[in-house]
Design brief:
488 residues, alpha/beta, 5-stranded parallel β-sheet, 20 helices, globular
């Protein structure tokens, strides 16, 4: 039964697809709306100018223009008019741009009809006024995040609403899902984009150095502090501080961080003058912080301070439809870095989608990059791909993890015994963990570089680390890079 349209419930509907206009017109009529439909953005603007309609539902891409280009004029002319935009170009930039130009809501195509009707009802009831904002940049710039799946659309919509706020954000998800990418996008497209983006991984900092890393230290604050050092809060002033793996933050550092978030000030280690903390906090973890709270390993009050807006990133197995786009993106990136151009055939893309990807997007990137380096064919077949994936899953015949672990453990133990003997009855200086790791890393990276004849891209893949990380390690450890001489 059709509900009679009530006064104040006129919908201006713009879409160049006649079938979509028909379906939506009928659905909107059933909830008591009067519909003025058009397939032209010019006609839509004329209706807006003439004062028609109480809400707009429009596709982004129209034959005679882009609805997002029209939106600022609509906001200026009739700031009380809610505008719902729909788009088949459902990337994060579309969601961000829609929010930037004042869209009331963004819905990806194909849309859920029930959800659209609920949004229309809410828009008609709210009549929310939204200020127009300047666009952050051209739509053809490189996408910060790849994915058009429904799971990623939910992420994009939350991100779009956060761009012009300073609310603290907690990003959760399995390792390799792209938490830092989301944090960088929130910064780069937000109100603090002109400020610095500073990242710190809590799991990678020795426990005794975390407070110094976060808040800095003064000269003479402790043994070895020969000069003043700015901490990450100071470095991120006016920008965003990304606290990765915050679940690994020790309790004493949690207490200091909570105090900074409460008071907006901090003091460096050994300092006496309080400094203002003008930073936006974005945190991330792959752990369940509620479990850590129950175990007494994470402060509940800090959790509520940083978990103002949660963003949960889906695992790659929960966004399978994004895998082909991601794979093509990584091949294109490899080509930009000087590797031969390659494509996946249709069967190879299906094989990628069928794999479980326990390492998520990071694992997919590693596989694609390795294929880009090693596969001689321009078109990568399913056979090549399946061989690569099977080799990743299968244990190496000569690898005996227990034997390798015992050998390495014995060597490290012998090294440490000698190290302690050098200091007699006393203990060696602090920082022993970092020094031992450094001494293990150096031969590991040097041997890998020799085995790949100096090919840093191949060495990074073998080590399972990012190429930029490898370069940084080579530079920090002063490892000579030789080419053409292969390890025998």
């Amino acid at each position: 039964m059709t509900v009679t349209a009530e006064q104040g419930r006129t919908v201006l509907l713009a879409d160049d697809d006649r079938a979509i206009r028909t379906v939506l017109s009928q659905a909107l009529a059933r909830i008591g709306c009067r519909v003025r439909a058009t397939g032209s953005s010019t006609a839509l603007w004329r209706m807006v100018e003439e004062g028609e309609g109480n809400i707009v539902v429009t596709d982004v891409h129209m034959p005679d223009g882009d609805a997002l280009d029209l939106l600022p004029a609509i906001r200026k002319r009739r700031p009380e008019l809610p505008v719902i935009v729909m788009s088949a170009q459902n990337t994060v930039l579309t969601a961000i741009r829609a929010a930037e130009v004042g869209a009331y809501e963004y819905l990806p195509k194909p849309f859920d009809l029930k959800e659209l009707l609920q949004v229309v009802e809410k828009g008609l009831g709210d009549r929310v006024q939204r200020e127009a904002a300047e666009q952050t940049g051209p739509a053809d710039q490189n996408l910060p995040i790849i994915g058009r799946s429904a799971a990623m659309q939910d992420v994009y919509r939350v991100m779009a609403r956060l761009m012009h706020t300073d609310l603290s954000v907690m990003i959760t998800g399995e390792s390799g899902t792209g938490k830092e990418l989301v944090a960088r996008a929130l910064h780069n497209f937000g109100k603090r984009a002109r400020g610095p983006f500073v990242a710190i991984n809590m799991a990678a900092i020795p426990r005794e150095l975390i407070e110094s890393e976060l808040f800095g230290h003064e000269k003479g604050a402790f043994t070895g502090a020969t000069e003043r050092m700015a901490g990450r809060f100071e470095q991120a002033q006016g920008g965003t501080l990304f606290l990765d793996e915050i679940g690994d933050m020790p309790p004493e550092a949690q207490t200091r961080l909570l105090r900074v978030l409460q008071e907006g000030e901090y003091t460096s280690v050994g300092g006496r003058v309080a400094r203002r903390a003008d930073v936006r906090i974005v945190a991330a973890t792959h752990q369940d912080l509620r479990n850590l709270i129950a175990e007494g390993r994470f402060r509940e009050d800090l959790y509520y301070r940083i978990n103002v807006v949660p963003i949960r990133l889906p695992a790659l197995r929960d966004r399978v439809d994004d895998i082909p786009d991601l794979a093509r993106h990584f091949l294109a990136r490899a080509e930009k870095e000087g590797l031969p151009a390659k494509t996946f055939d249709a069967e190879a893309l299906e094989a990628l989608k069928a794999y479980r990807w326990p390492g998520n997007v990071r694992e997919l990137e590693n596989v694609v990059r390795r294929i880009a380096v090693l596969c001689p064919d321009e078109v990568v077949s399913a056979l090549v791909l399946e061989t690569e994936l099977n080799n990743r899953d299968a244990p190496h015949a000569n690898d005996d993890p227990s034997e390798t672990g015992r050998s390495l453990g014995a060597a490290v133990e012998l090294h440490l015994r000698r190290y302690f003997q050098l200091h007699g009855e006393g203990l060696p200086p602090d920082g022993l963990y970092d020094r031992v790791i450094r001494e293990v890393e150096m031969p590991l990276i040097a041997l890998t570089m020799a085995a790949t004849r100096g090919n840093q891209l191949r060495a990074a893949d073998l080590l399972g680390i990012n190429r930029n990380t490898l370069r940084k390690k080579i530079r920090e450890l002063d490892i000579p890079v030789t080419r053409g001489k292969k390890l025998m």
